[in-house]
UniProtKB/TrEMBL annotation:
<dbReference type="InterPro" id="IPR009075">
    <property type="entry name" value="AcylCo_DH/oxidase_C"/>
</dbReference>
<feature type="domain" description="Acyl-CoA oxidase/dehydrogenase middle">
    <location>
        <begin position="124"/>
        <end position="219"/>
    </location>
</feature>
<dbReference type="InterPro" id="IPR046373">
    <property type="entry name" value="Acyl-CoA_Oxase/DH_mid-dom_sf"/>
</dbReference>
<protein>
    <submittedName>
        <fullName>Acyl-CoA dehydrogenase</fullName>
    </submittedName>
</protein>
<dbReference type="Pfam" id="PF02770">
    <property type="entry name" value="Acyl-CoA_dh_M"/>
</dbReference>
<keyword id="KW-0274">FAD</keyword>
<dbReference type="InterPro" id="IPR006089">
    <property type="entry name" value="Acyl-CoA_DH_CS"/>
</dbReference>
<dbReference type="Pfam" id="PF00441">
    <property type="entry name" value="Acyl-CoA_dh_1"/>
</dbReference>
<dbReference type="InterPro" id="IPR013786">
    <property type="entry name" value="AcylCoA_DH/ox_N"/>
</dbReference>
<dbReference type="InterPro" id="IPR036250">
    <property type="entry name" value="AcylCo_DH-like_C"/>
</dbReference>
<keyword id="KW-0285">Flavoprotein</keyword>
<dbReference type="InterPro" id="IPR009100">
    <property type="entry name" value="AcylCoA_DH/oxidase_NM_dom_sf"/>
</dbReference>
<comment type="similarity">
    <text>Belongs to the acyl-CoA dehydrogenase family.</text>
</comment>
<dbReference type="InterPro" id="IPR006091">
    <property type="entry name" value="Acyl-CoA_Oxase/DH_mid-dom"/>
</dbReference>
<feature type="domain" description="Acyl-CoA dehydrogenase/oxidase C-terminal">
    <location>
        <begin position="231"/>
        <end position="379"/>
    </location>
</feature>
<dbReference type="GO" id="GO:0003995">
    <property type="term" value="F:acyl-CoA dehydrogenase activity"/>
</dbReference>
<feature type="domain" description="Acyl-CoA dehydrogenase/oxidase N-terminal">
    <location>
        <begin position="8"/>
        <end position="120"/>
    </location>
</feature>
Amino acid sequence: MERTLFEPEHQLFRESYRKFLAQHVAPRHAEWEERGIVDRDVWLEAGKQGFLGMAVPEEFGGGGGVRDFRYNAIVTEETVRTQFSGLGFGLHNDVIAPYLLDLANDEQKRRWLPGFCSGEIITAIAMTEPGTGSDLQGIKTRAVRDGDDWILNGAKTFITNGINSDLVIVVAQTDPEKGSMGFSLLVVERGMPGFERGRNLDKIGLKAQDTAELSFTDVRVPGRNLLGQEGMGFIHLMHNLPQERLSIAVMAAAAMEGALDMTIQYVRDRKAFGKPLGAQQNTRFVLAELATKTTAVRVLVDHFIELLNEDKLTAEDAAMAKWWSTEEQLDLINRCLQLHGGYGYMREYPIAKAYMDARVQTIYGGTTEIMKEIIGRSLKLA
């Protein structure tokens, strides 16, 4: 499908990022998969070449302050298509950047954004807790005032960039009696006493991406590290989650295109019963259906990127994009793997990696069931 979303400057950016991946990631990603974490120097190189903080103003070391999500989408698409899933740039650019740009005060921006853009500061956000899952209002991590500071106690899990992160936005209760208005965002920095990282979690996919448990035991967080307004943490989360969920949909669309392309090539080359597998009618029908679904997901995702750039993307739009694209991604990759036969089950084949990496897509950022609940409530059925 011919896409009309991008301008010539975006294509130049895409070519530059492809070269970065080929030179600095491709030769090393297999090693990172074995180790379960990428080297920090790849973040420094990405920052040097302008692939971090594209929306950050130049005064803080960023790409110029233009909030154009198409650049973010390019980074995500090329990373997914090459299956370099260890890179946590999407979380950094798509999820954390809006918090720092929209909520940080001038002093905080001067303190954090230059390192954010250079790759010297790797970021994460800590929402999920053992036993809470998608129930953000069930968060138990607690921060209590002590003079101008906060004393933070609690635990988080499934935190992307959890081992490498230098700056973690932590969602904590600061006034339990106020319910959803009793949460705040506190920025915890590497080296703060009482801030500890647990194990690098052993996942079935995304093997090179460090995902960790974090614990906070009487961590003294300076008052100047409160991000946004006290008691408004839940509101801040709800405001930023649509972009995060669209980012996951961008991943899904790119993964579908990549899996479809590799499967088409495979059935052209693979022979069965004396002729290419692609010559079989069943194969053609399956791939015709999958090509149609891939195009439909691409059209929806590109349209929603346009809505986001126009500040028109709603929470319901993002929920629709997130659940539908990721469920279609799982279905497509499953059926593409089937066309690979026994070879699809071998980890040395890219379709097997696509299968393992995809499974989390319907879980993080809000499960499919939560997305449907958001949409269903908006319909005012009762």
